[in-house]
């Protein structure tokens, strides 16, 4: 099972190398947003709020990487994508993908709202530096409790988004399908292949989250590689479902 997941990652890396500058240029948009967020929040003493934003990124990233699925189709057709293809990806975005993106955004807003409410219960929105957390045992205990609650809530929402979006977006792009057919396909694949898809969910979510949280510049490579790897997952699962 792990060998299959590793193969998906290798195929994602191969697709990334076909147009590395283009891939990193698109990812740089989200890197810039992340850098502004982390610098601003840490400077103002709200470092734990960045944890909320990093977790929330998992809810919207499936829709944000739609561009890479479009580029993957061009690459697999034997062509070389360029910057005009990124613009074309937005223009050709099916209605089903837009609705999925809207649902992801709503869940993201729910996550942000609930997480900030939990944060206010523990810390009352008073600026607190990382040094304060380490020096004060009470603050450290509160921070631990907050992170546990946030992780549980984030994990539930992220898995819902994963089941809905992991394969529905590339399916809608390739098949020009409606929302119901795309989401049904994604959920059906996850439910019929629970072990490997659960492993894939942990890998996608874990790599994305810890990259955003601890090694943000690596997002330039991690984001497109994982997107292309997920496109490989879609192709394999599509063939599996059609043959079954």
Automatic annotation (TrEMBL):
Record key words, sorted: Membrane, Transmembrane, Transmembrane helix
Q: Please give the Pfam families that the UniProt record associates with this protein.
A: DUF2189
Record flagged with keyword Transmembrane helix: yes
Transmembrane segment boundaries? 21-42, 48-72, 93-123, 143-167, 198-231
Source organism's superkingdom? Bacteria
Supply the name of the protein: DUF2189 domain-containing protein
